[in-house]
Design goal:
Blueprint: H1 3-22, H2 24-35, H3 48-54, H4 62-79, H5 87-106, H6 133-149, H7 158-191, E1 197-202, E2 209-216, E3 219-226, E4 236-239, H8 252-261, E5 265-270, E6 273-278, E7 290-297, E8 300-303, H9 317-328, H10 336-341
Antiparallel strand pairs: 1-2, 2-3, 3-4, 5-6, 6-7, 7-8
Length: 361
């Protein structure tokens, strides 16, 4: 999730557990501690694929963060003891603030390595968009009230109430995900399509309209499913370019990307470049993680030693507004196929001066 959400989540948790004793400071301590796991973004792992797939790694491990909670509890008790509350309560506050950061991240589509250094496929429950105002708003209100009024008397319960509301909203997003997948599965059965894999995620800034991806050999299908839909979902069949993946069979970077995304990738030959796109994130046709993996030289693909990331097109306001209108008006036609076909169109070729590991390359 975004940094603001992680900060107010951490502040709300520490306010709920220690606000009675720490007052407003609990909100500030929780906000700082709640964003701590994301400091791994300052580490350069070598290229764009490495930076993507090692992010949310060791710093988001439940094992590492639990050990850190023990260490911080010991240090605070040793150098800043407070007899008003127990070491157990202090540990509980620190531990909850730390581990809820990666757990919330795991509800997004990115992929979070909760069990690092073990190597299962990163967890991506993908039931909430990376920015969702409805989740964040109750937490922001509680933190604002706590900073203004303090955390005593009637305001003492504000963080707890906000955490309850946000948690209920998360449960609602899981219900929406199940609804979307069940409707698509029914349509797949009607059309006789054998899905290799189904991936679903909310469309930007909401949890009412869902984007469902169905992998089907050399193709994938995309559908939009909303709570207000009365008709079966419309499946758009889109080429995935999997034949191009053979050129990357010996690429450790591609193997790691395929592991990290669980294979939800698309391949495009654009001119003499082989572009690999993580189609889980963003919105159809506008995906933040696209990588320039190889160049065609004398009829053979040469895999780059360092893999650069293509410039990220966030999409235009008109497209986003069209998607949002689709929530309330199921009859609105969304040109998913046209948007998806943008991925095969020419892009600005990365020059030799582009630094591969920079996020904006």
């Amino acid at each position: 999730m975004d940094s603001i959400t992680q900060a107010v989540l951490g502040a709300s948790i520490q306010g709920a557990v220690l606000g009675r004793w720490q007052g407003r400071k609990a909100l500030l301590y929780g906000a700082m501690l709640g964003t701590l796991p994301d400091l791994d973004v300052v580490i350069n792992y070598g290229d764009a694929v490495a930076n993507m797939t090692y992010h949310r790694g060791f710093s988001h491990s439940l094992f590492v963060l639990s050990a850190l909670a023990v260490l911080l509890t010991w240090l605070i008790r040793r150098y800043r003891p407070n007899p008003d509350y127990s070491s157990r309560r202090l540990f509980l506050a620190i531990w909850l603030v730390l581990i809820t950061h990666p757990l919330l991240d795991a509800f997004t589509s990115y992929g979070t390595q909760l069990f690092w250094p073990l190597m299962p496929i990163p967890t991506a429950w993908s039931s909430i968009f990376i920015i969702d105002p409805l989740y964040t708003l109750p937490l922001c209100i509680a933190v604002g009230l706590g900073l203004y009024h303090g955390l005593r008397d009637r305001m003492a319960r504000a963080p707890t109430v906000a955490l309850l509301l946000s948690s209920l909203y998360l449960a609602f997003t899981l219900t929406g995900k199940q609804m979307a997948e069940q409707r698509v599965e029914a349509e797949l059965a009607r059309q006789g399509i054998q899905a290799e894999q189904i991936f679903s995620t909310p469309t930007p800034l909401n949890s009412l309209l869902w984007r469902v991806i169905v992998l089907d050999g050399d193709y994938y299908h995309e559908a939009l499913v909303g709570w207000l839909d009365r008709q079966p979902p419309r499946l758009e069949r889109i080429p995935r370019g999997t034949r191009l993946a053979k050129a990357l069979a010996d690429s450790p970077a591609h193997a790691r990307l395929a592991w990290f995304t669980d294979g939800v990738l698309r391949y495009d030959q654009i001119g003499e470049r082989l572009i690999v796109t993580d189609i889980r994130l963003g919105m159809t046709g506008y995906h933040p993680f696209r990588f320039d993996f190889a160049s065609l030289e004398d009829g053979q693909w040469r895999v780059h030693e360092q893999i650069p990331r293509l410039p990220f097109e966030r999409g235009d306001v008109d497209s986003l507004q069209l998607l949002l209108s689709r929530i309330w008006r199921p009859e609105v036609e969304i040109p998913l196929l046209a948007w998806a076909n943008r991925l095969g169109q020419p892009v600005a070729v990365l020059g030799s001066t582009c630094v591969a590991q920079q996020e904006n390359c």
